[in-house]
Amino acid sequence: MSWNGVQQRRNSWQDGVLGTNCPIRPGKNFTYVLQVKDQIGTFFYFPSLFFHKAAGGYGSIRIWSRPKIPVPFPTPAGDFTVLAGDWYKRNHYVLRRYLESGHSLPFPDGLVINGRGWNGYTFTVDPGRTYRFRVSNVGISTSINFRIQSHKLKLIEVEGSHTLQNTYHSFDIHLGQSYSFLVTADQEPQDYYVVASSRFAPRVLTTTAILHYSNSRKGVSGPIPWAPTFQIAPSLMQARSIRWNLTASGPRPNPQGSYHYGMITPSRTIMLANSAPYINGKQRYAVNGVSYVPPDTPLKLADYFKIPGVFNLGSIPTRPPSGNNAYLQTSVMAADFREYVEIVFQNWENTVQSWHIDGYSFFVVGCWMNQDGWRAMDA
């Protein structure tokens, strides 16, 4: 299991990406022990091996503030989890064979909200009260736009950080991202659409749930509220509007760490460019021209027990190479302990790319866009 967004203190071995710990065998149990004292907020977990995530094996994680620590908004009347994402009719092992045979994934068959299709899930609210909606994009390949018919979304938290409370009519959520919104039931008592639709996809996929007023006698009606589909500018402007609430309390009254990251001079810059090359006649995916090949011995074990010949430091360049010569390699990049590194992500593909940075805190400091769209981000 991978705990998306949850920091692993001192050691990342309990985050279940390939090579960090053993799979849980059928009929067996395993207890994870995590310390989250420096985190709060909304996250989710998912199985990270054998494409089990595509079968719906995911769930929400809520990390609460300590009771005596104030939060920058009144206590909501209720707390809802919204796990939205793309869905395939094919079984997960069939999808895995697509990738293993060197082909890209097919286009998703639809979207789901909490595992259900059109109007398959209901959120019940009382008139006049305010509720917290924790929304995560748990899909495989598709960015989504989230909205609630005739209601406004007040952003209050992004993956463990309180934000300035901007209000939106709809919100783009990319793969792996989690956001919290306050929604007030201030409309006429009836049922309303809760909508998720695809963004930046060849065709628009849409699914709905229902926001049900407890005294409603009228079902959902009218057109589904509009949202952008291919337009890049609204998504970029929205991302730039998110600001950290620096006056809000953190997970504990005496937070540790530095608040002067903008004054720290990075020791070096690493540039990571994703690509989708064909290697040996098969569709592969690569970083800086290197497509990762898992070794027979897990990297964590090879590193801990100093087993030679499993990997080589520097087997992946720290900058994109010139040309299109991609190759297969067990790629491992070296870094020094407590080193401050500037990492630049580059995307020259025609699709949105999401990066999972396992077990670390990253601070976004800038982005760059050319005439074709949003291309790179410093972290």
How does this model look, in words?
- Belongs to the multicopper oxidase family.
- Keywords: Glycoprotein.
- GO terms for molecular function: copper ion binding; oxidoreductase activity.
- Pfam families: Cu-oxidase (PF00394), Cu-oxidase_2 (PF07731), Cu-oxidase_3 (PF07732).
- By secondary structure, this protein is mainly beta.
- It folds into 2 domains: 162 residues, Cupredoxins -  blue copper proteins (Immunoglobulin-like, Sandwich); 118 residues, Immunoglobulin-like.
- The longest helix is centred in the N-terminal third of the chain and has 9 residues.
- The radius of gyration is 22 Å and the shape is globular.
- The two termini are 25 Å apart.
- The C terminus is likely disordered.
Would you count the extended β strands for me? 26
Q: For this structure, what is the CATH homologous superfamily of the largest domain?
A: Cupredoxins -  blue copper proteins
Give the N-to-C terminal Cα separation. 25 Å
**Overall radius of gyration:** 22 Å
Q: What integer is the average pLDDT? A: 88
The proportion of strand residues reads 25-35%
